[in-house]
């Protein structure tokens, strides 16, 4: 699918909403005839849903319908370009047939635009490599509600558990607090089959689809689940690197080789002392070269490294190990381990943020019979991504978030304002908030 985007040199609210609208206008419309639903466009339905997640306000559309009746105008129209607000049920019915695949071009455009703006350079490590962390997350579970895309599990009680999960790839860096979420891949029965899908299969599908849209130099991060030869072989086939958690219990052959190398003096050791501000920690790195990932004649040879951190009492406070195709030496082993440890950001800075910081990722906004649950989940991730981009590039938004660093406080204020006041545009809203906080409006600022 071609990118249906206009050129934009700025990442402002209005510019980004315009790009989002262009993609939403391409959503397939499965309606026939001239019934009541035809009065609402697909883009109005999608923008209405997106506005709820973007403003972290489940009641936003209800407030705007009331405002439209009382004043003849509303913020859904002025801020998001929604010409007519469908009812919640109409939104669900219209969007149920839209696969989350329809959002792929938008995610790709945002990533490509960030690369062109030089933002990805700030995330580079290990000879200018970009780290992409992979992880699976469940966002819906029920014993009653189900659809054709649900995964199923029969419990010991005989009750069937229905669920939705996704692989959520994220660009991370050990030196950056922010993360860049990429388009998710949903774990769901494929091609109408009865066979259950699983995380590694979904991750491979994502790679098949997205590898060609990523920067050239990428290192993939993952937990021990991903540290399997078929997956590593596929990454090598794609010309990509990996740093994957490697546990002893699931890699017995590899650790037997490490023990043999240790006896032969072929495991190198590096120790460093680090002051935390409260105590000294000792970091002990061990690494070995060219050890087999599994017990087979065609075993992939990987490099292995381990970090053990002990406190002043000699107690171990951290230990983890990684398998990688990066060459390891005394000069870069700490950087490789640091990159591998950045994998946790996909859980803490992405998945947990989506669940606990106002995005309500695990809330059932609507399940549908086909794609609704997955599409809404992807829209929530998109809202998080757009918030991140705005904080980097929109001057007014950045100033407001600096003054109101708590997401809850910021969005509480936005919810209250958009309930009672109709703003002409995003710039009007941002300037109103800046003025109320006695923050000078930056010259030449434009939130749209």
Structural overview:
It comes from Methylomarinum roseum. Keywords: Membrane, Transmembrane, Transmembrane helix. The chain crosses the membrane at residues 372-393. This is ISNCY family transposase. InterPro entries: RNaseH-like_sf. The radius of gyration is 24 Å and the shape is globular. The two termini are 28 Å apart. The strands form 2 sheets. The protein has a 9-stranded mixed β-sheet, with helices on both faces. Strand 12 and strand 13 (316-324) form a beta hairpin. The protein is built from 15 helices and 13 strands. The chain has 2 domains: 13-98 and 394-436, no CATH class; 102-352, Transposase Inhibitor Protein From Tn5, Chain A, domain 1, CATH 3.90.350. The protein is of the alpha+beta class and 448 residues long.
């Amino acid at each position: 699918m071609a990118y249906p985007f206009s050129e934009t040199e700025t990442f402002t609210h209005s510019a980004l909403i315009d790009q989002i609208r262009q993609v939403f206008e391409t959503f397939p419309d499965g309606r026939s005839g001239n019934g009541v639903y035809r009065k609402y466009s697909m883009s109005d339905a999608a923008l209405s849903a997106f506005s709820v997640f973007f403003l972290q306000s489940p009641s936003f559309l209800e407030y705007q319908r009331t405002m439209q009746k009382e004043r003849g105008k509303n913020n859904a129209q002025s801020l998001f370009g929604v010409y007519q607000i469908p009812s919640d049920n109409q939104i669900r019915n219209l969007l149920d047939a839209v696969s989350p695949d329809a959002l792929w071009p938008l995610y790709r455009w945002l990533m490509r635009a960030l690369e062109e703006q030089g933002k990805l350079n700030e995330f580079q490590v290990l000879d200018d490599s970009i780290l992409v962390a992979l992880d699976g997350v469940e966002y819906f579970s029920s014993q009653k509600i189900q659809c054709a895309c649900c995964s199923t599990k029969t419990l010991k009680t005989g009750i069937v558990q229905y669920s939705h999960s996704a692989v959520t790839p994220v660009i991370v860096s050990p030196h950056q607090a922010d993360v860049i979420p990429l388009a998710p891949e949903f774990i769901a029965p494929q091609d109408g089959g009865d066979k259950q899908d699983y995380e590694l299969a979904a991750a491979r599908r994502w790679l098949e689809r997205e590898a060609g849209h990523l920067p050239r130099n990428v290192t993939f991060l993952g937990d021990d689940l991903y540290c399997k030869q078929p997956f590593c072989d596929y990454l090598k086939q794609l010309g990509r690197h990996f740093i994957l958690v490697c546990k002893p219990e699931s890699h017995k052959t590899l650790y037997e080789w490490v023990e043999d190398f240790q006896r032969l003096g072929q495991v190198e050791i590096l120790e460093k002392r680090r002051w935390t501000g409260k105590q000294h920690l000792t970091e002990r790195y061990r690494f070995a070269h060219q050890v087999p990932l599994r017990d087979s004649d065609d075993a992939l040879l990987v490099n292995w490294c381990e970090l053990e951190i002990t406190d002043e009492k000699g107690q171990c406070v951290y230990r983890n190990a990684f398998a990688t195709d990066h060459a390891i030496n005394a000069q870069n082993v700490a950087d490789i381990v640091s990159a591998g440890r950045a994998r946790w950001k996909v859980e803490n800075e992405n998945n947990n943020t989506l669940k606990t910081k106002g995005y309500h990722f695990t809330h059932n906004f609507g399940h549908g019979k086909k794609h609704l649950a997955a599409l809404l989940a992807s829209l929530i991730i998109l809202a998080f991504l757009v918030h991140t981009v705005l904080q980097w590039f929109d001057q007014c938004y950045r100033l407001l978030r600096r003054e109101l660093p708590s997401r809850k406080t910021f969005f509480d204020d936005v919810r209250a304002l958009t309930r009672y006041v109709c703003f002409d545009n995003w710039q009007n809203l941002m300037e109103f908030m800046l003025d109320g906080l006695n923050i000078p409006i930056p010259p030449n600022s434009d939130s749209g």
